[in-house]
TrEMBL record:
Signal peptide: none annotated. It is found in: Cell inner membrane; Cell membrane. PANTHER family: BLL4140 PROTEIN (PTHR43227), SN-GLYCEROL-3-PHOSPHATE TRANSPORT SYSTEM PERMEASE PROTEIN UGPA (PTHR43227:SF9). Coiled coil: none annotated. Belongs to the binding-protein-dependent transport system permease family. CDD domains: TM_PBP2. This is sn-glycerol-3-phosphate transport system permease protein UgpA.
Length: 293
């Protein structure tokens, strides 16, 4: 391995300084402020604060509405990650079989990732709007009583579909790269030996995609916890009857709508701790089953 030598000892630190500064200003500092604020109880106007210790955490963890949001978040995260990764893998496999126009198909499949979450939410809201949505009309034509404004399961299905659609492009990009890294000689040898397409996939392709799948599992977990706020906000607003109120949306609602800043900060800290714990568990236990070439 070739050793990199910088002409000046300070140059590496100068190159790292912008990223370190951005991390401190936009990540470390806000996280520290949230931890500090979670121990305080403030009036809605922020004029007076009182140190209450762990009272905010105790109140949050004993709140039935918060426990309901935990269950909603778990269901939402699981469905979003499974659907987004499953569809991306199917599309990547299909794109690899295309002989002509392969680049065009790949480019079209990557485009949705450039759409902002709020915009993606509005697109799906218009398509499934009970009054004027084209897809809602098709569902009613098939005899489905579609009304996500009143039906909790339909509202959850709509936000999961929007969140998964937004993330499919990102997963597709990595799955395509992983498929291109698999030696074709191995697949051709298996085909010559008489292995079917399904057998080649489960015994050769999918195990070789394990590092990519594990990486995407971590990314999709973080995405479902945090980056789907814009979709929830624009599509359902946490409704109906809190059926789609995830943890990140509840923290926003309690802090910026109900002005309960201490509770909102405590929820943010708990959410951050949960995501960190899940990531550590994934790396500690799931990563052991992943074989890197």
């Amino acid at each position: 391995m070739q050793k990199v030598t910088f002409p000046h000892q300070l140059l590496p630190y100068v190159l790292l300084a912008p990223q370190v500064l951005l991390t401190l200003v936009f990540f470390i500092w806000p996280a520290g402020q949230a931890v500090y604020q979670s121990f305080l109880r403030e009036d809605p106007f922020g004029l007076q604060s009182t140190f209450v210790g762990l009272a905010n955490y105790s109140q949050v963890l004993s709140d039935p509405n918060y426990l309901h949001s935990v269950r909603v978040t778990m269901v939402f995260n699981l469905l979003t990650a499974v659907i987004a990764m499953g569809l991306a893998l199917l599309l990547a496999l299909a794109a690899e079989r295309v002989v002509r126009g392969k680049r065009i198909y790949r480019t079209l499949l990557i485009w949705p990732y450039a759409v902002a979450p709020a915009v993606a939410g509005m697109l799906w809201l218009f398509m499934f709007n009970p009054a004027m949505g084209s897809l809602a009309y098709l569902l009613r034509s098939c005899g489905v009583a579609w009304d996500p404004l009143l039906n909790a399961n339909q509202a959850m299905a709509m936000v999961v579909a929007a969140a998964a659609w937004k993330q499919v492009s990102y997963n597709f990009l990595f799955f395509v790269a992983g498929l291109q890294a698999i030696p074709q000689a191995l697949l051709e040898a298996a085909a010559i030996d008489g292995a079917s397409g399904a057998r080649r996939f489960w015994t050769m392709v999918f195990p070789l995609l394990a590092p990519t799948t594990f990486f995407l599992l971590v990314i999709n977990t973080v995405y479902a916890f945090f980056d789907t706020f814009g979709i929830i906000y624009t599509v359902t607003g946490g409704g109906p009857a809190k059926a789609t109120e995830t943890l990140v949306y509840k923290a926003f609602s309690d802090g910026f709508v109900h002005l309960n800043l201490g509770s909102s900060a405590a929820q943010s800290v708990i959410l951050m701790a949960v995501v960190i714990a899940l990531t550590i568990l994934q790396f500690r236990y799931i990563d052991r089953r992943v074989h890197y070439a």
